[in-house]
Design goal:
heterodimer; A: alpha+beta; Cytochrome p450; 6-stranded mixed sheet; 3-stranded antiparallel sheet; B: alpha+beta; Alpha-Beta Plaits; two-stranded antiparallel sheet; iron-sulfur (chain B); transport (chain B); 4Fe4S_Fe-S-bd (chain B)
Chain lengths: 468, 68
């Protein structure tokens, strides 16, 4: 999570803008164990499971020209969200990679026929996301949305993900202490215990399972529930709703309903914490007295969705990428001290926030030789930036020994994932434990049968059948 | 080397602490950067430069000081 500033729950088919996950060490330490959560065994996978067409391209035609726009030379002909087609499912879409090589700052067409800029190179993505002249405020006219549903999400109860400083900083700083490095490092024993218990259960008397349902999803889900003070037994409810919020295919009315249900749930939770406080995040936000229950519910939604979708998908997709790169997997197994660097490399290589992070220019800004005018939207594609050869030579290959620390998988700028320290700890523990405890881990279906989440704001796989 | 931080800009992502824990820490109350060593020894210079490079909020600046 990811804490993305996480999941750009806000942009619907979101961009998990980088929140990760969150929480206080104390909260984790003392709360529920897996034993208390009966449903771990066979939870459903994230999101809907409708058919996925990698060539899905909403609104292809009639690129309405946009007034006062860009020189013709920068028109890329690309329609977003961009399908991957038949390309390698770990790589950014070929169309985005072409744009990065040929027109790094390009005009693209959105689903509704409007157009915006796409920024694809590492240095340009960092420049835009790090520049306060590019706003994250989705209420500004012309803000680029990836879907109609994304527009629906920001209509109500926006979170600080879609605000600018100083309001963004004021709200974010209510949470930063919960995710700071030393707090999260102190959670390692608890995360390790959860990982071990999940694997105990998954492997008990069996030799095959869906790794998403039994390990990759429940691990971060349990952790974020402990941090927030959300009862894990409600996970089917909130995972189903977050699946709707993150699907690029959800209808605006379904997004609205899911958002309202999740919001009402979290408002009720805030109320219950007022009656019976604990030391988890929601309760402490209530006790702080600076936010009303609607604001607390919005913040809780951001953390809850971002806190499990991101890390869950990174865990499963990382496992699959290692299984497909057995030399790299063996290297990591033989030298577990590589795990921290390997997680950075997997974050870079896989970049599960695979649609561009949206911003809107508030002033004219020149970038890559073109002028982005005030009021024009920009999508910053993290996945292409993380394959930029100028920063990551040979970046299309997975190399667990690479120094990948400059990746932008958590975003960049003041909105960069709040929960990244937690996401890192969870991923390091999940992958190290998996490789150590299951030396014969392998795919239990043909690679071609794996269903990828092309249609979701957070990329990954719907299920990962493995054997050991 | 002389290191400067800007606590107003800091967004508490913590990547500096992971890169150079001898030089950077986070405030207990809000996770904002704290400078532990404004003039770190030479063996930490690479880590500090990396921390400045990956800081998402450009809150760390590094100044090279000529020794006389």
């Amino acid at each position: 999570m990811t804490t993305v500033e996480p999941i750009d729950v806000e942009n619907g088919a979101g961009s998990v803008e980088a929140l990760g996950t969150a929480g206080t060490a104390g909260a984790v330490g003392n709360s529920g164990t897996i034993e208390n959560t009966s449903a771990i065994g066979n939870t459903s996978t994230i999101g809907n499971t409708s058919t996925i067409s990698s060539t899905h391209r909403p609104g292809t035609t009639h690129a309405t020209s946009d007034p006062g726009s860009a020189p013709l030379a920068s028109e890329s002909g690309l329609v977003v969200p961009v399908g991957r087609g038949d390309g390698c499912p770990f790589d950014p879409p070929a169309g985005v990679e072409r744009v990065r090589r040929e027109q790094p700052v390009a005009r693209v067409t959105l689903w509704d026929g409007s157009s915006c800029w796409m920024v694809t190179r590492h240095q340009d993505v960092r420049a835009v996301l790090g520049d306060p002249r590019f706003s994250a405020d989705a209420t500004r006219p012309g803000f680029p949305f990836l879907t109609a549903g994304g527009r629906e999400i920001v209509a109500n109860n926006p979170t600080f993900l879609r605000m600018d400083d100083p309001e963004h900083a004021r709200l974010r700083r209510m949470l930063t202490a919960d995710f700071m490095v030393k707090k999260v490092e102190a959670m390692r024993p608890e995360v390790q215990r959860i990982a071990d218990e999940l694997l105990d259960r998954m492997t008990d008397g069996r030799s095959a399972a869906d790794l998403v349902a039994e390990f990759a999803l429940p691990l971060p889900s349990l952790v974020i529930c402990l941090l927030l003070g959300v009862p894990y037994e409600d996970h089917e409810f909130f995972q189903q709703r977050s699946g709707i919020l993150l699907s690029l295919r959800s209808r605006p009315e379904d997004i609205r309903t899911a958002q309202q249900e999740l919001h009402a749930y979290l408002v009720r939770l805030a109320g219950s914490k007022r009656e019976r406080p604990d030391d988890a995040i929601v309760s402490r936000l209530v006790a702080r007295g600076e936010l009303d229950d609607d604001e607390i519910a919005s913040m809780g939604r951001l953390l809850l969705v971002a806190g499990h979708e991101t890390t869950a998908n990174m865990t499963a997709l990382s496992t699959l990428a290692l299984l497909r790169n057995p030399g790299q997997m063996a290297r990591l197994r033989n030298d577990p001290s590589l795990i921290k660097g390997a997680v950075e490399e997997l974050l870079r290589y896989l970049t599960i926030v695979h649609n561009g992070l949206p911003r809107i220019a508030t002033e004219d800004v020149t970038l890559g030789g073109v002028t982005i005018r005030a009021g024009e939207g920009v999508l910053c594609t993290l996945n292409s930036a993380n394959r930029d050869d100028e920063v990551f030579p040979g970046g299309d290959a997975l190399d667990v020994g690479r120094d990948a620390r400059r990746h932008v998988a958590f975003g960049f700028g003041v909105h960069q994932c709040l929960g990244q320290p937690l996401a890192r700890v969870e991923l390091q523990i999940a992958l190290e434990t998996l490789l150590r405890r299951l030396p014969d881990l392998r795919l239990d279906v043909a690679f071609e049968e794996i269903r990828f989440r092309h249609d979701m704001g957070v990329y990954g796989v719907y299920a990962l059948p493995v054997a050991w | 080397m002389r290191v400067h931080i800007d606590q107003e800009k800091c967004c508490g992502a913590g990547s500096c602490v992971l890169s150079a824990p001898e030089v950077f820490d986070q405030r207990e109350e809000d996770g904002i950067v704290v400078l532990l060593d404004a003039a770190p020894p030479a063996e930490l210079h690479d880590a500090v430069r990396e921390a400045a490079a990956i800081c998402p909020a450009a809150a760390i600046t590094v100044e090279q000081v000529e020794r006389v």
